[in-house]
Specification:
alpha/beta, 6-stranded mixed sheet, disordered C terminus
Amino acid sequence: MELFTIKDLSFAYSREELALEDCSLSVQEGELVLLLGSSGSGKTTFLKQLKPQLTPSGYRKGEVLYCGMPLSQVPAEQSAMEIGYLFQNPEHQIVTDKVWHEMAFGMENRGFCQREMELKMGEISSYFGIQEWFHSRVEELSGGQKQILNLAAILTMGPKVILLDEPTSQLDPIATRRFLQMLRQIKEELGITILLSEHHIEEVFHMADKIAVLEQGKLTYFGAAREGTQTLWQQNRQDLLPVSARVAFSLNSGQKEKFLPPLTVGEARRWLQKNEFTYSGSRQETVGQANGKKEWAIYLREVYFRYERQEPDVLQHLSLKVSQGECFGILGGNGTGKTTLLRLLGGDVKPYAGKVKKNGVTAYLPQNPQSMFSRESVEEELEGMEPERMTQFHMTPLMSRHPYDLSGGEQQRLALLLLLKREPDILLLDEPTKGLDEEAKQALQVLFAELQREGKTILIVSHDVEFVAQCTDRCGLLFDGQLMGTAPTREFFLTNQFYTTSLRRMTKGILKDMVLEKEVLVYGGNAVL
């Protein structure tokens, strides 16, 4: 049965520019469809066309059918209950203060009886393992728990379809895998249809029945996921493929015309072993190089911090020294204090014990880029900015737009540019790659290298393991209030099992000491690229 049928759908926020153009596809009941595309390609706009309560104002033509009926004619009560929507920021969806009340909120508004509400909450809480924090305050939850709570609250309404817009963008790698596994579970066990926009391609591509690729509002591919890898490779859209597929395509060198690549770490390991790719050549260090500078830029010694006198310490016994011109990465789970550490360095909060010293002007990029916007257009926000910087971050076509009308990735790029306008010596960046596509991440990596050559110091808090592996000199894991295992980047990622790159997990024990994808392409087996 076709759940959604979309025919020649076009949409524009203003008459000058189309956000979607002549998109046509159909979604079968029980499918998982993965939406892929660059930042600003129209993924969020597309998803919101399928949820009447969230459809933005603008100019639309074409047809959207839900269960054979025009979506505009579906009763509001029915679409509200049957079509669930999960935002990328869990904070934007939570409306109450207690976990149990958040789960009950939607049912209360739609007149469920007390017995039915209690039964649904008990059943779904048991299914998701929420019973242990059922009576907790929402503010006490980690980011991953909040997103699970949002998903559980949607399921209490008995949806037929769930639309998810970058749901793991604020989750750490382990919480991301758990959340996506849970999503796969409800799809397979409950038969719920899922349309998902997600930048964590490594963790989700293999789950998809079909992929839909959007580029500048146009649908460039819609079809089976594994078969679609060939099309993406031929279209030079390697950035939309998992690293396992990219490596396999490169090592295969196009010798097999209908080659279907591995899509998971396990499949890739078996493929490498079957084809007997082995390490050859000399090792060259490509990440984690010492910058040779000894003058410090950030110095913390035995720092302790808590938000309230009676609460436990968020940071304790924490020491860190970052050299001038160094790029330092901090990883760790949700709720471990990473943002608190940046706020402390930025001067927003102060420790109750220990020393905090900074050598230079500091600028802080928060997780929510909207907090940095104060003007009516991108052009006004970037007044006085060097044209080269704006071109580098692809902001020139967006100059007339209001900052709040940009996609999540576009807002992140704008916020980074505003940060650079202050000409800081030290940049404190909280999830700087959130919402960015691969092209934008590469541009950011180039920018970081330029800033380091200028003597700028960069401290990154990020869940993006792959990005941290490519651009930092040293890393540490924040756990139990302090930094653990601080080491040069290569050493850090070679040591870890979970907080490491997909490439490392693919090649461990098969190809020697590989961390980055480009290392396999240069040194692995018979490949000479």
